[in-house]
Design a protein that fits this description.
Structural class: mainly alpha
Shape: globular
Distance between the termini: 48 Å
Number of helices: 13
Number of strands: 0
Largest sheet: none
Radius of gyration: 22 Å
Order of helices and strands: HHHHHHHHHHHHH
């Protein structure tokens, strides 16, 4: 009787999400984003102007509709949908990396590898933003009851000179931070992934969260960079978005290249050696 061969152990396969990148490497992503911004800068500036106009119209619409009481949650909610709005900037960086030309029209009318899954992700992020805005209104009602919103001229005094106002700030910041952290984790790599790979929205969001969690030090630094630049943009009446938004969008693409493991790309992904395009940072 023939003897069956001894079983051969399977080859090791790395399904981990940890990349062991130094935390300060986040600033390298920012530098790479600035470099992409400077290439055909008129396109990125035009995209930034669109982001500024959208923000200006949103704020003006809230005042016109007497909805100024949700102004601050709406501004914070911009960070929730920001990764989806930056998809055209990812497209420009992808084309630069692959040596292909890019136009503003191609940045606006993006056709990703995952097709309608990108739109589905955008809808989910918009719903998350609406949920946060509703939660903010409920938190206000819990602390101040049915007291009408005093308006932007008097809200500072109400918040900073009363104990109830301070508690509202603390609880609202904690809840808003949880919403922002969750939105950041599920979207920061999901949207570039849907652009560059053929996958579904839920898989991309789950993978994004796993990548963020397993690379927490560098992602905390990157999140702090995003918050600081967005805060500066708000303090400049959103004018800072004209430059900050495109630079952050391009930099996020380089963060995706550095964190997302190249070996897990599908065969349907666009042609081009992404490992070489990032100088071995994702090896």
């Amino acid at each position: 009787m023939a003897k069956l061969p001894d079983p051969v152990p399977p080859l090791p396969r790395d399904y981990g999400f940890q990349r062991d990148l130094p935390a300060m490497a986040a600033f390298d992503w920012l530098k790479a984003g600035w470099a992409d911004f400077r290439k055909e800068s008129s396109q990125s500036l035009a995209y930034g102007i669109l982001a500024f106009v959208l923000s200006f119209v949103l704020v003006g619409g809230l005042f016109a509709l007497s909805l100024d009481y949700i102004l601050f949650p709406a501004i914070a909610g911009f960070m929730v949908v920001g990764p989806f709005l930056a998809i055209g900037l990812y497209e420009k960086s992808r084309r630069i990396q692959e040596g292909r030309p890019v136009t503003l029209g191609e940045m606006i009318l993006v056709r990703g590898e995952s097709g309608g899954q990108m739109l589905f992700t955008g809808v989910l992020l918009c719903l998350l933003m609406l949920l946060w805005m509703r939660a903010a209104v409920l938190i206000y009602a819990l602390f101040f009851g049915l007291t009408p919103f005093p308006g932007l001229d008097d809200v500072a005094g109400m918040l900073f000179t009363t104990a109830t106002g301070w508690w509202l700030l603390i609880v609202g910041s904690l809840v808003g931070g949880l919403f922002a952290a969750f939105a950041f984790a599920i979207s920061v790599f999901a949207v570039p992934m849907l652009l560059n790979e053929r996958t579904d929205a839920l898989t991309a969001m789950g993978t994004s969260m796993a990548l963020v969690w397993n690379n927490l030090p560098i992602m905390l630094v990157w999140g702090a960079i995003v918050v600081v630049l967005f805060g500066v943009s708000v303090l400049t009446a959103f004018l800072g978005l004209i430059v900050a938004f495109p630079v952050l969008g391009h930099a996020t693409w380089h963060a995706y290249l550095a964190i997302r493991q190249p070996g897990r790309r599908t065969s349907e992904a666009p042609q081009g050696n992404l490992e070489e395009g990032y100088d071995g940072a994702v090896s």
